[in-house]
Amino acid sequence: MSPSSNIRLAVPFFMVRDMEASLKFYVEKLGFTITNQWTPRGKIEWCWLQRDEVSIMLQENRNTEKFDQEGPHGKGVSTCFQCVDALILYHAFMEKGIEIKEPFVGNNMWVVNFPDPDGYTLDFESPTDVPEETMYSEWFK
Question: Structure pTM?
Answer without folding.
Answer: 0.83
